[in-house]
Amino acid sequence: MxxxxxxxxxxxxxxxxxxxxxxxxxxxxxxxxxxxxxxSVFRRCLASSPVCMTTRASVMTGLQVHQHGVWAFADPGxxxxxxxxxxxxSAGYRTGVVGKTHLWRHGGGHASDHLEEMADWGxxxxxxxxxxxxxxxxxxxxxxxxxxxxxxATHRNYLNLYLNSQRPLPWELPxxxxxxxxxxxxxxxxxxxxxxxxxxSESQPFYLQVxxxxxxxPWDSPPEYRRMYNADHMVPSIGAEQSGPVSPLVxxxxxxxxxxxxxxxxxxxxxxxAKYYAKVTLIDDCVxxxxxxxxxxxxxxxxxxxxxxxxxxxxxxxxxxxxxxxYEGAVNVPCLFRPPGGGETQQSRALMSxxxxxxxxxxxxxxxxxxxxxxxxxLPMLDDRLQDTHQAAVLSELGxxxxxxxxxxxxxxxxSIDARSRAAIDLYDMQDDPxxxxxxxxxxxxxxxxxxxxxxxxxPMISDLDTSAW
Length: 470
Prior knowledge:
Layout: E1 5-12, H1 30-37, E2 40-46, H2 52-61, H3 65-68, H4 84-90, E3 94-100, H5 115-121, E4 125-129, H6 141-148, H7 152-163, H8 184-199, E5 206-215, H9 223-226, H10 248-255, H11 266-296, E6 303-309, H12 328-331, E7 332-333, E8 335-338, E9 346-353, H13 354-365, H14 379-382, E10 394-400, E11 403-409, E12 413-418, E13 424-429, H15 447-461
Parallel strand pairs: 1-5, 1-6, 2-9, 3-4, 3-5
Antiparallel strand pairs: 2-7, 2-8, 6-8, 10-11, 11-12, 12-13
């Protein structure tokens, strides 16, 4: 039997709830909706960490954050450990990546300087860009393309405006001045098309990662994408009064939030959200281009398409932007599996994480399992019928030692702790309080629940977390 190809599409900073298939009546996402219609949706997939480089290290290694040790900034040295890409490569697959990997620290130089590192990870063919903001001072085939077309100054002038200390507020940010086809994510879609043209062979299956830079800010979509949305139709962000203590994570984020964010009006909030949604639709069109490329080569009948994101985007919920906290907006990410030839539409509430996606990719490829990974393959239920149970609990971790925080999510509760002291800082009943407005951590009626979660769920999962050097 011919082994299936795998295309793993990975966006950046994309919430799980801003697509049509997720029940959002405003979102314009026909291509992702199609994948959902022809496959399986996991509604409760949690990021290994609500930080880019940290999560990507987990995706590559299949390890929890405290196991691989990349708490904030990429550590190229971990490529000499285990890699799910290398395991898939060893199973006979042609492996490739296009777009942003964030597996090394940006700041000067050219992405091509890191081709050897990409080979060490297991990629036979890497066509790497940076993310949007990193392209200000790190070159890649994308900035080469812009320079060749006389567009690099336009691109970098825009980003310097966005990154300036006097930057426009999120609802004030203008569109990029680049032509639509020159947008970073459109360029990454073209890289995927080129990779599929150059690397598909009847004699060897392939595994391709397509890593988009959006919908991560800046929300710079071309004008035609912004015109697709009426800000008046956007549902305002979660802004109701919260009760209970505020975690140190949230306090720090609010302290460093853009000026006036806490004074954002309803109308400004809706305009801001419309700009994010425009970027989501841009990503959706880029996904559509990948699908079209697969269809044009007759590959949809023998290719798994998997879609997820590294973490979410707060988008004004609880007065916050971006990530670096454990609210649902930051940690709940999309997760779609479309099998070869398409399948029955299914949705699951099973708890799972990035590590389970990685285990599933390995299982699909028939590759050796990763060592010490907490990931469990979803393939048995994908081959049969989805269940609403998978993991009893999942972890997400965040921080910079010695300030490190760990969150454990069970079917009903979400608890976060200071990883060093094991002191609880947040406890939410996700069944009765899905908007996370009531922190129960100090309420007497929940002390036994809190203790049980720490002792019987969280502590066993972080038993190998060593804080002695912090």
